[in-house]
Backbone:
């Protein structure tokens, strides 16, 4: 009988010992894994690979021609304000005269305003005095409503005679990405065109007189912001 008790005791002791060894081994193994992983763990600043892209300063400028429009420009201004994005507007003198409060709002909200002539003419196809008048009348109107001096011009069709450029002292701003939004009038197509081509330093051409273009612009802002782009006004890209 005594022998039997001893045997039971031995079995139980062995069993307890096994459990204890298992516990010790597990905690040791855990410590070993943690220690061995330590040299490979990332520091706070490298933890997210997207962070470096955001700090990478890829810059792009959104530019809008032919406005202001009493409905779509306001919709765009609201969307840009919500997203904290500044853009550049090349306005037509005739439209400025019609909707001065929209131009004032653009300026007050920190956007850059440039000249796009008074009646959307091709400056190289009219007399120099008439062309000069197209520019100066528009400058005067914008300056009257915003109180700011105009520095930039986007000549319609991209043509600005050299003599006129010297005379007006305005910096011409063209573009590098043109989705022909006025022709396709389709939000998805415009978004696709821009997103497939855009790169650091690009100037995107859109028209804020079309709702499809305004909707596309806001989608582009959201997507490119996620991709690490920063939206700037043209004065930061053109010198
Ligand atoms: Ni135009």
Residues:
């Amino acid at each position: 009988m005594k022998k039997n008790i001893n045997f039971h005791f031995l079995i139980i002791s062995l069993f307890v010992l096994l459990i204890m060894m298992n516990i010790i081994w597990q905690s040791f193994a855990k410590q070993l894994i943690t220690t061995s992983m330590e040299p490979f763990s990332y520091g706070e600043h490298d933890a997210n690979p997207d962070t470096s892209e955001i700090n990478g300063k890829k810059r792009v400028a959104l530019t809008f021609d032919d406005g202001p429009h009493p409905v779509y420009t306001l919709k765009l201004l609201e969307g840009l304000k919500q997203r904290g994005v500044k853009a550049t507007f090349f306005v037509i003198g005739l439209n400025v005269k019609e909707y001065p409060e929209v131009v004032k709002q653009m300026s007050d909200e920190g956007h850059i305003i440039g000249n796009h002539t008074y009646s959307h003419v091709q400056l190289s196809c009219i007399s120099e005095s008439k062309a000069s008048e197209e520019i100066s009348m528009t400058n005067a109107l914008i300056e009257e409503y915003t109180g700011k001096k105009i520095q930039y011009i986007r000549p319609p069709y991209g043509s600005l005679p050299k003599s006129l450029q010297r005379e007006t002292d305005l910096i011409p701003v063209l573009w590098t990405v043109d989705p022909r939004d006025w022709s396709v009038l389709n939000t998805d197509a415009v978004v696709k065109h821009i997103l497939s081509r855009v790169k650091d330093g690009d100037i995107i051409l859109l028209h804020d007189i079309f709702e499809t273009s305004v909707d596309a612009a806001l989608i582009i802002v959201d997507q490119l912001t996620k991709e690490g782009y920063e939206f700037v006004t043209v004065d930061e890209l053109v010198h």
Q: What stands out?
A: The CA atoms of residues 51 and 234 lie 25 Å apart. DSSP finds ten helices and seven strands in the chain.
